[in-house]
Automatic annotation (TrEMBL):
<dbReference type="InterPro" id="IPR017853">
    <property type="entry name" value="GH"/>
</dbReference>
<dbReference type="InterPro" id="IPR013780">
    <property type="entry name" value="Glyco_hydro_b"/>
</dbReference>
<keyword id="KW-0325">Glycoprotein</keyword>
<dbReference type="InterPro" id="IPR006047">
    <property type="entry name" value="GH13_cat_dom"/>
</dbReference>
<dbReference type="Pfam" id="PF00128">
    <property type="entry name" value="Alpha-amylase"/>
</dbReference>
<comment type="similarity">
    <text>Belongs to the glycosyl hydrolase 13 family.</text>
</comment>
<protein>
    <submittedName>
        <fullName>Glycosidase</fullName>
    </submittedName>
</protein>
<dbReference type="InterPro" id="IPR045857">
    <property type="entry name" value="O16G_dom_2"/>
</dbReference>
<dbReference type="GO" id="GO:0009313">
    <property type="term" value="P:oligosaccharide catabolic process"/>
</dbReference>
<keyword id="KW-0326">Glycosidase</keyword>
<dbReference type="GO" id="GO:0004556">
    <property type="term" value="F:alpha-amylase activity"/>
</dbReference>
<keyword id="KW-0378">Hydrolase</keyword>
<feature type="domain" description="Glycosyl hydrolase family 13 catalytic">
    <location>
        <begin position="24"/>
        <end position="429"/>
    </location>
</feature>
């Protein structure tokens, strides 16, 4: 796509995964085909034409494997089979071919760091069966004293004492997610085989879950007790991590033309460079978190603080600038299955629902990085009004709420309601609102998690019929990204590094120059961008009658404009 002698944001060759728009599917909440209340793979197949119409190129599907679902599939019991509630391997094969028929590729989430405690390796390891003793991190010792002070990402200690083996095992997440011991060459071989199994099926790549925490230091030293997630400095980018990631690439991934994106915990651009491209460990890109941590207080994820536009602008710009002309390609996302809904978090889900949902979509689809759109954000889905503990499903949120009750910082749900409504991962996991019918058209049965009452107003059926909907705007912007190579490969220049509300940037590739101006506020914002030159046409705007005088731009609440420049 891109001429070889032009200055671009990356110095590597053009590649399909750089040009792709990725759409994340969380299958249990996508579409239920059989009325059991749980989304499934045939349900995704039923919506293949919808995905095609949307115009996306790649689907990232969160774990579809057999699992007890203590952490919604990130606790895998069998890497080579599909969860019964989702269907079976024939359904999976059918999905792959239906997507490929529509030129849509499929990448799978692969959890390398941990399994379920119900995986046969853990069951054997717990009983110290021959050859399996060292598949996990086991430490013997006082049953009342964990081996160190590390905490789990879901709160509480990262170690659980196992009465069968009479030893502690490590779990950086839920106690039903024991960490695999990657020091053991047998574990590495097993995981390489799993990755190869799926590549041989013809999938198009992987999103590697929390990939950079796979290496733990010998002796498990205590972490900084004041850190948000205690122990992170020891297990993120740990001592042998490049051997493990590079080894996976050399042994397996390098033989396939696939997309690989690693989810980096606490990752920096500097670390990302070491994981990516031919000069690094071979991954294509990493998923990073700086811009989504802007509303964390000292206590981390559950400690909510106000944020400024300048923080998200700086965080995302830093990644572009530091990865520019390196072997590491960039990613951009605003929402995932782990975050609140983007229009509720970064926009205004009430008065400026359309305007802010489309402004956020404009950033996502014009930014210099492969964009990842989370299911439902293309119709502007909103956070759920949680009102009781019984409605909640997520292991992280329920654990935090239990802890608040145990520690007496909460006496009734109302004491935690605001935090849960803002922060719970369940906000992203309520079913896709296909229509205004019962259960939002997601299922004929009882949904596994409540459907958002907003489905009556915000749903696909309504938006599909309207040209002034969030959905139509996303379709147009995806098409624009496909048509304008400057949006993929063009150099990024930040034009407003100190404006309190406006984020404007230029993307240029050879003679092509585009300007993106975004107003991140529920009021009109004025800005002078005359230094950027003359507008020749308007490529996108979420309001009627946008002006083109760059010297006196008045951007209406959450207005987004994309201009072509002379
Ligand atoms: C990743 C997943 C998240 C999961 C965690 C543990 O962050 O995105 O959903 O809970 O890893 O596997």
């Amino acid at each position: 796509m891109c001429p070889a002698d032009t200055e671009t944001i990356g110095n590597g060759e053009p590649a399909w995964w750089k040009e792709a728009v990725v759409y994340e599917i969380y299958p249990q909440s996508f579409n239920d085909s059989d009325g059991d209340g749980i989304g499934d793979i045939p349900g995704v197949i039923e919506k293949a034409d919808y995905l095609d119409e949307l115009g996306i190129d790649v689907i990232w599907m969160t774990p579809p494997y057999d699992s007890p679902h203590a952490d919604n599939g990130y606790d895998i019991r069998n890497y080579r089979s599909i969860l019964d509630a989702f269907g079976d391997m024939d359904d999976f094969d059918r999905l792959l071919s239906e997507l490929h028929d529509r030129d849509i590729r499929l990448i799978l989430d692969m959890v390398l760091n941990h399994t379920s405690d119900e995986h046969e390796w853990f069951r054997k390891s717990r009983r110290e069966e021959d050859g399996y003793e060292d598949y996990y991190h086991w430490v013997e010792g006082d049953p009342d004293q964990p081996p160190n002070n590390w905490t789990s990402g879901f709160g509480g200690p990262a170690w659980t004492y196992d009465d069968t083996r009479e030893a502690w095992y490590l779990h950086l997440f839920h106690e039903k997610q024991p960490d695999l011991n990657w020091r053991n060459p047998e574990v590495r071989r097993e995981m390489h085989d799993v990755v190869e199994f799926w590549l041989e099926k013809g999938i198009d790549g992987f999103r590697f879950d929390v990939f950079n925490v796979m290496s733990k230091p010998e002796g498990y030293p205590d972490g900084d007790p004041d850190g948000g997630w205690i122990g992170m400095e020891h297990f993120s980018d740990g001592p042998r991590i490049h051997e493990y990631v590079g080894g996976l690439y050399d042994d397996v991934l390098s033989a396939y033309d696939v997309m690989t994106v690693g989810e980096g915990m606490d990752i920096t651009p500097r670390a990302a460079k070491r994981y990516c491209g031919p000069s690094g460990d071979g991954l294509n890109m990493v998923y990073h978190y700086d811009h989504t941590m802007l509303d964390y207080g000292d206590g981390g994820w559950w400690d909510i603080v106000d944020w400024e536009v300048s923080e998200i602008r700086e965080a995302l710009t830093k990644w572009v600038q530091q990865l520019e002309v390196t072997d590491a390609w960039n990613t951009v996302y605003l929402g995932t299955h782990d975050t609140p809904r983007i229009v509720s978090r970064f926009g205004n889900d009430d008065r400026y629902h359309y305007e802010s949902a489309t402004m956020l979509g404009t950033l996502l689809l014009t930014f210099p990085a492969t964009p990842f759109c989370f299911q439902g954000d293309e119709i502007g889905m909103t956070n759920y009004p949680w009102s009781s503990r019984e409605e909640m499903r997520d292991a992280d949120a329920t654990n935090r709420v239990e802890l608040a009750f145990e520690e007496d910082s909460a006496e009734e749900f109302a004491d935690v309601a605001d935090v849960v409504r803002y922060r719970s991962r369940d906000n992203a996991r309520t079913p896709i609102q296909w229509s205004g019918d019962a259960a939002g058209g997601f299922t004929d049965g009882e949904p596994w998690i409540p459907v958002n009452p907003a489905s009556e107003e915000i749903n696909v059926a309504d938006q599909r019929d309207r040209t002034d909907s969030v959905l139509s705007y996303y379709q147009d912007l995806i098409e624009l990204r496909h048509n304008e190579e400057a949006l993929v490969y063009g150099v990024y220049d930040l034009l407003t590094d100190d404006h309190p509300r406006v984020w404007a940037f230029e993307r240029s590739l050879g003679d092509e120059r585009l300007l993106v101006a975004l107003n991140w506020a529920g009021r009109t914002s004025r800005v002078d961008l005359s230094d950027a030159g003359e507008v020749t046409s308007i490529l996108a705007c979420n309001y009627d009658d946008p002006g083109t005088d760059l010297g006196a731009l008045a951007l209406r609440p959450y207005e987004a404009r994309v201009f072509r420049l002379a």
